[in-house]
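Dear H.,

Thanks for agreeing to be a second pair of eyes. The structure we're designing against is below in token form, covering all 195 positions.
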């Protein structure tokens, strides 16, 4: 990442140095996941769509600890793998919107709340900004080479309520709380970086 672009990493100290944690990342571009993996202070295990595990990418992604997920159904193997990462004190990376979009956390799926409430792991919001600027691109699907990309880590927070409930209503409530925190972090990151 540092050889192809100019990442500016802000707030990496907010990621706990040990123990399980979930990095919740906005997702507007193909480079967001690799950029976070290349700049995070700890190794990150992402849930990645199974369609990406083809050809030489398959052994590479598996080798660096990424988790294959079938987005069309409830993928029990992916869920079990993600919970194992957290149970073993690792870092799980999640795109809460489930797929690329505007990168504004406008429509969250329930997966992030499920993993956070089920594992008790804190969530650290992450904003990747600048990857969608179109000036100077040689390859339309990637940011301009040597262009600046900001990776801004926010304050860790707990998603569950104090009662430790795991009901459908508790998950829905947690999703609302998470969305508020992620949206506020994204707004702060934009103000901080001027993007």
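And this is the sequence the design step returned. I haven't edited it by hand at all.
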């Amino acid at each position: 990442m540092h050889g192809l672009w100019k990442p500016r990493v802000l707030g990496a100290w907010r990621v706990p140095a040990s123990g399980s944690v979930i990095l919740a990342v906005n997702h507007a571009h193909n480079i967001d996941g690799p950029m976070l993996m290349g700049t995070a202070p700890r190794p990150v295990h992402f849930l990645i769509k199974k369609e990406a595990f083809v050809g030489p990418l398959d052994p590479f992604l598996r080798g660096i600890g990424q988790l294959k997920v079938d987005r069309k159904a409830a993928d029990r193997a992916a869920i079990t793998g993600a919970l194992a990462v957290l149970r073993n004190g690792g870092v799980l990376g999640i795109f809460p919107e489930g797929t690329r979009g505007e990168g504004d956390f406008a429509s969250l799926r329930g997966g992030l709340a499920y993993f956070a409430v089920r594992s008790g792991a804190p969530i650290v919001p992450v904003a990747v900004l600048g990857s969608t600027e179109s000036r100077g691109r040689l390859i339309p699907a990637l940011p301009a080479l040597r262009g600046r990309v900001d990776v801004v880590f926010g304050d860790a927070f707990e998603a569950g309520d104090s009662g430790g409930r795991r009901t459908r209503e508790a998950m829905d409530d947690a999703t609302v709380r998470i969305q508020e925190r992620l949206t506020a972090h994204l707004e702060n990151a934009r103000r901080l970086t001027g993007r």
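Two observations from my side: The longest helix spans residues 168-193. The mean pLDDT is 84.

Warmly,
E.
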